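Limitations

Structures in this collection are predictions, not experimental determinations, and the ligand pose is part of the prediction. Treat each record accordingly. The example that follows, with zinc ion as the small molecule, is included so readers can see exactly what is and is not provided: the inputs are given verbatim, and the output is the predicted complex.
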Amino acid sequence: MKTRQQRLDWAVDLASLDMDTITPGDLLNLRLKLQEFVSGGLKEGMTINDLGGAFGSVNQKPQPEEYSLQDFQKLVKRVGGLLRNAVLYEGKMVGVKTPTIEHFFAPAGGQLLVIVGGSTEDVFLHKLMQLLQLEGADRLLLCPLCRRVFLRRGKRKYCSRECNNRSSYERWVERQKQAAE
Ligand SMILES: [Zn+2]
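Predicted complex:
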């Protein structure tokens, strides 16, 4: 996750993760990714916008590395609901509460660092909002087949190759039926 697009892709994909199929190995990877998303630092070639406009710091439990399956389930459910509302209720305001968020300023080496602190969930949501704003929230789309929210890439209408294939197949079946009538 180096660019802000990669970060946003990961966060949006997380929202449609099937938590019933998570193995212990997957859980470890998810924790690492979550930690990188909320409180990862700058690597070579990255700017602060790649991190979502500010550094993140989790100052409450559970920390990303302590996230349990239940914690992830809660996060996935909340983010999924939020993204769906953001796509479905065009023209309406959708509220996101992040009650633990605090901003910190840290002068360091002649520069002023801005750090967003709070719970893992709140820092996650804060960063997601910032990334959506930076990347363009109009890239969020709802898959017409499976109702998953995904980020538009090119002219794709469906969330995945599976949905695209399913849709082509269904259209083909429809044409066969019509031809037979
Ligand atoms: Zn789909």
